[in-house]
Automatic annotation (TrEMBL):
GO cellular component terms given for this protein: plasma membrane
Pfam families per record: GntP_permease
GO molecular function (one): gluconate transmembrane transporter activity
Keywords: Membrane, Transmembrane, Transmembrane helix
Name assigned to this protein: Gluconate transporter
NCBIfam families membership: gntP
Classification lineage: Bacteria, Pseudomonadati, Spirochaetota, Spirochaetia, Spirochaetales
Species: Treponema brennaborense (strain DSM 12168 / CIP 105900 / DD5/3)
Chain ranges passing through the membrane: 7-25, 31-47, 54-76, 106-131, 143-161, 181-200, 246-265, 271-296, 316-336, 342-364, 385-411, 431-455
Stored InterPro entries: Glcn_transporter
Keyword Methyltransferase set for record: no
Domain of life: Bacteria
């Protein structure tokens, strides 16, 4: 530790993180700049030389983005294609037909669960909320139960499952295999989604609200069971077929999973080597994006498609910068030796090391609202600590992602999207509708992590 005391490193870390939170909450500086400033404070305060601080920042930034920056960009472009082509809505209608009358909440939850893998949850909810409203009007099911099921499915996979940018950034920072991470993330996403769906069904009876038949407003009649068909056939002809809608989404997932399975079984000869190559995340997502462009937008002019793709890249840019800055912060913590020092302290206690990324993500989420920023910040801070303590890096990454689900409220844009499109205006009801829902997902995922930590 270059003669620097552990106490000095902890003080530097504490000051750096305090400055990070202060800059995010109280200044005009963007979180990207705040992360770089905090990295400098921690590095210099921890005893590193100036040149070493710069080298660690640039090395951590480039190393993180070298693995996932390309995937983030392509994932965002794929999401835009799903949005403008109607593929996301086609998925929703498919699940409604599949599950049938009386299981509309399950259909909406599964739709959100899959749609948010390539699409940001905010966009996905905006796209699909008219469908939820139409179902509520036709079936007399409370819009609250339908919206909670849809939004929960969206936010859970948005927070846990690659190739959504946040989980990708966390996976890159922790240096874990994306295929293994994707498999485990999908597995632990199911129970939180189911729990939130049942909560939505319960709350839909307490806050029974349906769309008005005569205008765009909402009414609250006495509660009644669903009474009519679920399918809304309007605009069916303008959407892609079910097969066409699902192929671009499922293809990269299947390829990545094949890569993971074949590599784990050490089958690397012949045809297997081809699938291992195609299952590399960059290649798999590239194939999915190309399929989406050519199968979902065949009648759209070339210029329009390119314009939409370029527009989507603008939203990816800041995510890439923040992800890279999170990697820089992690590298600083590692290079300064503070990660080793904290890890030694944690190793001497009975506490699971995965508590650290989970708690930090929870705190950052509550303080500043963005789940993506919370998980990336937590990953940057704790990845070197988890590694030094000999913890399971995949579980550490999932812990950072899970912590970011905690209690969505006023400082989270999705809180307003869900409540606004659901017609909920009273603060007390807004908290019951969405803040409690995300906290249920947070608690269930944490319980799953504790169980997995026993066996992994």
């Amino acid at each position: 530790m270059n003669g620097i005391s552990g106490g000095q490193m902890l003080i530097a870390l504490g000051i750096g993180l305090s400055v990070l939170i202060l800059l995010i909450l109280r200044t005009k500086l963007h979180v990207f700049i705040a992360l770089i400033v905090a990295s400098c404070i921690i590095g210099l305060g921890g005893g590193m030389k100036g040149n070493d601080v710069i080298a660690a920042i640039t090395g951590g930034f480039g190393g993180t983005l070298g693995s996932i920056g390309i995937i983030i960009g392509m994932g965002v472009m794929m999401g835009k294609i799903f949005e403008i082509s109607g593929a996301a809505e086609r998925m929703a209608r498919t699940f409604l037909k599949l599950f049938g009358k009386g299981k509309e909440e399950m259909a909406m939850a599964l739709t959100g669960f899959l749609v948010s893998i390539p699409i940001f949850c905010d966009s996905g909810f905006v796209i699909l909320s008219p469908l939820a409203k139409a179902i509520s009007r036709r079936t007399k099911k409370s819009i609250v139960s339908l919206s909670i099921a849809l939004a929960a499915g969206l936010v859970i996979t948005h927070s846990l499952v690659p190739p959504t940018p946040g989980p990708l950034g966390v996976a890159g920072t922790f240096g874990v295999d994306i295929g293994s991470f994707l498999l485990l993330a999908l597995a632990i996403s199911v129970l939180p989604a189911v729990a939130c769906m049942f909560y939505g069904k319960y709350l839909g009876k307490k806050i029974y609200q349906i769309p008005s038949e005569t205008d765009d407003g909402w009414i609250r009649p006495p509660y009644q069971s669903s009474v009519s068909e679920t399918a809304d056939t309007e605009c069916e002809t303008r959407m892609p077929s079910t097969f066409t809608a699902f192929v671009p989404l499922l293809t990269p997932i299947i390829l990545i999973l094949l890569n993971t399975v074949l590599s784990a079984l050490r089958i690397t000869n012949g045809v297997a080597s081809i699938f291992i190559f195609l299952g590399k995340p960059i290649i798999a997502v590239s194939i999915g994006l190309i399929l989406a462009i050519y199968t979902l937008t065949p009648k759209k002019p070339r210029k329009e498609v390119i314009t939409e793709l370029e527009g989507s890249i603008k939203s990816a840019g800041i995510i890439i910068l923040v992800t890279g800055a999170g990697g820089a912060l992690g590298q600083i913590i590692k290079a300064a030796g503070v990660g080793d020092y904290i890890a030694a302290g944690i190793a001497a206690t009975p506490l699971p090391v995965i508590l650290l990324p989970f708690v930090i993500a929870t705190l950052v989420r509550f303080v500043q609202g963005s789940g993506t920023v919370a998980m990336i910040t937590a990953a940057g801070i704790t990845a070197p600590i988890v590694a030094a303590a000999g913890g399971n890096m995949v579980l550490g990454a999932l812990a950072a992602c899970s912590g970011s689900l905690f209690f969505s409220y006023f400082n989270d844009s999705f809180y307003w999207v869900v409540n606004r499109f659901t017609g909920i205006t009273e603060t007390k009801e807004q908290i019951r509708v969405w803040s409690v829902t995300t906290t249920i997902a947070w608690a269930v995922s944490f319980a799953e992590l504790l169980v997995l930590n026993i066996f992994m």
